[in-house]
Amino acid sequence: METFIQPKITGYRQLSEEEAALMNEGKALAEQVGNYLAKLRFYIPTPAEGKRNNVLGAALDQRWISIGATDIQKGFMAVMRGIAQPTTF
After folding, report:
1. Which of 5, 6, 48, 55 is the most exposed place for a label (fewest CB within 10 A)?
2. Cβ contact 62:51 at 8 Å
């Protein structure tokens, strides 16, 4: 693998190949989690078994899903910051 030398960005350092691999692994994992959260956001309950008139099952609480998504996103950002170790606020 070629080492990419990025242009100097204030407050950031050049990552090693291992660190870049960790960053990419984390980004891929975050993408998987994001896809799962999208699935929850677009979830449509199926008809409840044994119910008359095809009554829908319980819907998911989108407020809590949004809170969870925000907290997970902040967690991934914190982990990426832990890898990148920026020196600025």
Report:
1. 5
2. no
Distance CA 78, CA 63 (A): 23
Residue by residue, DSSP assigns 19-74 as HHHHHHHHHHHHHHHHHHHHHHHT--PPBPTT-GGG-B-PPP-HHHHHHHHHHHHH
As a whole number of angstroms, the distance between CA 1 and CA 8 comes to 21
What's the predicted TM-score (pTM) here? 0.77
What is the rounded end-to-end Cα distance, in angstroms, of the chain?
32
Residue 49 reports pLDDT greater than 80: no
Q: Which residues of 31-45 are buried (b: 16+ CB within 10 A; e: fewer)?
A: eebeeebeeeeeeee
Instruction: Say what percent of the chain tops pLDDT 70.
Output: 83
Decide: helix, strand or coil at residue 6. Answer: coil
